[in-house]
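Standup, Tuesday
Yesterday: got the pipeline producing structure tokens again.
Today: sanity-check two examples.
Blockers: none.

Example 1:
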Amino acid sequence: MKKVISKKQFDEERALYGISDTLVEECRFDGPADGESAFKECADIAVENCYFNLRYPFWHVNHAMMKDCEMTENCRAALWYDEDITIMHSKLHGIKALRECSDIVVNDCDIISPEVFWKSHRIKVQSSSLQSEYPFFECSDVTIDDLKMKGKYSFQYVEHMTITNSNLDTKDAFWHSKNVTVIDSVVKGEYLGWYAENLRFVRCKIIGTQPLCYCKGLVLEDCTMEETDLSFERSEVDATVIGRIEGVKNPLCGRIVADEIGELLIEEQYVAAKDTRIACNNIISRSDTMS
């Protein structure tokens, strides 16, 4: 970096507008002027050990690195319309933290943001924690590893995503998603994966009521399922489950292999039993209305 800005405080509007080839370190973006958009239209910048308590700090920024920074809950809509951004060892605690960004790397970050990673593309998240209501809405080309997430309506309409070694505590996850693979992870929540296409779980623990309904191309490989009543309704499914499935209801077609099924419900007005092969030696309760 040709220029260094160090140990200063900024609170004016567009304080560092348009800077490039600059290292900004140990600065505070806070104060009575309450100015917005500190780094708007910037390029080739590094921001280290800085504190942000003002709105919209990184808009239309290209090629930047942020390290060991803190963004408070007042730092709303922090990164929008940015490209090629790396964020490391930082706190992002403002609402709508990232939106319409591309080529984003997040590593070892603490994120608390009700809406985050909206309509963004080519995202890599590693070794981070996330609390959010609507994370990753309409994102694509996403790679996640070692994420601890507490969410609600997560990963809706995402396309081309891989998640590994993660713990996802979330409701209504993966709705309308396409081409998503989850490996060696725990996924807990209600109504998981409805209307998804090509959703695949490998060696995962799936917990929660009414999962994986109305899916196309659904695959489970060597997974476990807990508290999963009314599973697979109207889904195209190929599932190998270790242990018990609490309940299976009206799968549309495919194959289900399990050690035990608590309740199997097949209703002729909705599905044909011959279209789904159930391989299970211990079905506790069966309701088959096929004639």
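Example 2:
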Amino acid sequence: MADQLATYARTLQRYVDGNDALRCAIGASPEDSLRLSPLGEGEHNVNLKLDVVRTHATDACAKARRDASYVLRVNVLPQPFHADQVRYEYDALRCVAPSGCTPLPLFLDGSESAPGEGVLVEAFCPGPELDFDALAPDDLVRAAHIMAAYHAVPVPESCTLHRPADPLRELFQECCERFDLYRASAFEDARVTRWAERLCALTARAIDQAGEPDDAAHIVNTEPLASHFLLPRGSDSGWFVDWERPIVGEVAQDLAFFLAPTTTFWDSSYLFPRADISAFLDAYWDAVDGRFERGRSDERFSAWMKVSVLRAVAWCCKALIRYGGSDEHQTDKTAKKLPIYLSDGFLEMLMDECF
């Protein structure tokens, strides 16, 4: 995968070198050097660090003013329910900017001549990723404060993010559709299908018991993975990056996704003890500090946890179809984790812990 990132870096270096609009957006002069280096990649985007270096600075102060770092994101696969991934993410970052903990979007290129499926440039946010396998004492509290900060941002009238009437039922239906694709494919395993049917039935029952949402009017990321939290050491604040698939919905969706075993195990070997789940939820609502009502979030949290787990299993099933016998973009992590997630042992653990 490092070779693939290096190849992207070479291709994109040519792209940024001749892009006057990009230079203007980040305040780089024609004399400044733009340097790219691999930063990281996921299923949908490849990220590179973009450093602006003033090569002809006349003094140290001028050089300090001009040197800066940004993130260049290339979309390689759009998310569902919108066709223009980079535009959607750009608009989302503008909406959530008042939180003060998200990268500012600076440049957008969704043209046919853009690399991949489009390019987004945003401010670079420093700091190490949240690491469940090496938690500092205040890491989870800081993550709770970051999540509360972006949830508390009032949704502007101009916000174009997807607004499902019932986010819980919509995501459940998406999971069912993924399982339908899996059952109809050449990659179906009857063992996995039996697990899927059990999980779907129990989740449907939980959704019916959860009732209707009373507050689905917050910007939620929908995919708060540990790697999306950047926590600079020696600071009380931090950043939340990667806004591929936000919606206007319920805060319980982000809370359940973050705490679900299918989420933590993706980036680590960590699984939240039950007591720590309660402690995180308490820290989150303390951080909200009355900026919005708690409503029925607690009542719907259990159903959201089940949907979060179901979503991960459904994603793995669809991934088997997508990657089976193809050379489509795939991370090393996906190749390693997929067989574990669909193993009897892991599915049994999910059943015991969440259902």
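Quick observation on example 2: The radius of gyration is 21 Å. The first helix runs from residue 2 to 17.
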